[in-house]
Amino acid sequence: MCKMTALFKHMDIRCSCGDHHIKSCEDVMETLKNQFLPCRGCLADDLKKFRPLNQQVDLKNVDYQWKLCKCGRRHLDSVMAHVLKIMMEEGQRKNNSTLRHAGTPLITPGYPLKSPPYLGKDSLVLLTDEIDHKSALRIYKEVPEVRGVLKGDLKETVGVTDSESSPHTYQLLKGCDLRCDVLETPSGPICIYKNQGQIHIEFPKPSNPKITVLHETMDQYSNPSVLDCTCGPGTLGISALKSGARKVVFNDIWYPAAWITSVNLGVNGFPVEFSQKKQGLIGEGDNFQVYCADLRDLKPFLDEKYDIGVIDPFPGVDFTEFSQIMGEICHEVIIIG
What we know:
Layout: H1 3-7, E1 8-9, H2 25-32, E2 74-75, H3 76-89, E3 104-107, E4 118-119, E5 124-128, H4 133-142, E6 146-151, E7 171-175, E8 178-185, E9 188-195, H5 209-218, E10 225-228, H6 235-242, E11 247-251, H7 255-267, E12 272-274, E13 280-285, E14 288-292, H8 295-298, E15 306-311, H9 320-329, E16 330-335
Parallel strand pairs: 1-12, 5-6, 10-11, 10-15, 11-14, 15-16
Antiparallel strand pairs: 2-4, 3-5, 6-7, 8-9, 12-13, 13-14
């Protein structure tokens, strides 16, 4: 039985594209150190982001082999130049466009970098606000570093705020949008996978302020129980488990968030058993449970009062009602956001 299969009971975990893009955190960390560093043969890139691309290079030379090293990697700016060239050829960008107009590159695995990365195959998800299916297909087929193409506005948060709201998602035009972010915690790194068209983007930082706030609160307890009522992909609760929380309950009203939380628990070494439900209890392990429910409906599922309640609301969301409900089922409530 392989390492990952052992962590997911009764379920073969694959990402939405059907491939095995999900690796254990241990496997991710084994290859992370040098994954985006240039070898001695890699070419430096001197492209200017605010100068029209067609004034810097002969676009006829820009293809999948342009500035590609024998090691199979090329500079991020070279990859984005290739993307922009296709967009201009398809009429999606003006001929005088700069690299800033190509979109947002979402690197995978994502972690804080001191310099621009050198990318290999399937290491980037492209997010851009204006693009058609034909251009997305060309980018996916012709730019080997691109794993998937998403259409959406980076300024708009994806997900759902409550049971009365409609979910907002980015549109996956081609490929796979699964990414992994690596975050440092006081108890070591954790790996958090996200289908980026359905889960909000958080760019990794050397020190995550949300994790810091949670652990400062946990330090006041001995093996606390934690209820994360807006868990997203599970970052805070998994960090709590790694640091010795006695029990963690994860909850999110958005099923894609609750499902990927269950996946991320297994990825980070916590064996999880999935249910076939899409509401209520959808996953559990020895000292955790994962729910997909409106917070107002969660209380009947809970069998104790928790030491720490965590609320990590979307920007601009009124969390007054959340705070009142959490105050009834937790000894202490912290707002992280």
